[in-house]
Amino acid sequence: MKDHATSSDQVIWRKSSRSGEQGECVEIGKTSTDARVRDTKLGQGSPVLQVSWSDLASLTRSVSR
Question: Which residues contact 34 (CB under 8 A, 6 or more apart)?
Fold first, then answer.
């Protein structure tokens, strides 16, 4: 995973290294209290889904099946 921080909202975004340079994946952001999900290709302009860490873990388990 590659990390990069955005200064405006204190979210540290991670993109899978397996996504390559095409940008067709989602990024996971972390804050001190929750997780965020956004579309990589839209970057800063992407809508952001804010979820709890437990909800993100459930989502990850569901889509990996």
Answer: 50, 51, 52, 53
Compute the chain's Rg from CA coordinates. Answer: 12
Task: Give the per-residue pLDDT at 3.
Answer: 47
CB 13 within 8 A of CB 4: yes
Amino acid in position 31: T
Question: Any idea of the CA torsion for 22, 7, 34, 15, to the nearest 10 degrees?
Answer: 20
- 7 or 38, which is more confident: 38
* pTM across the whole model: 0.69
Per the prediction, the chain carries an average pLDDT of 80
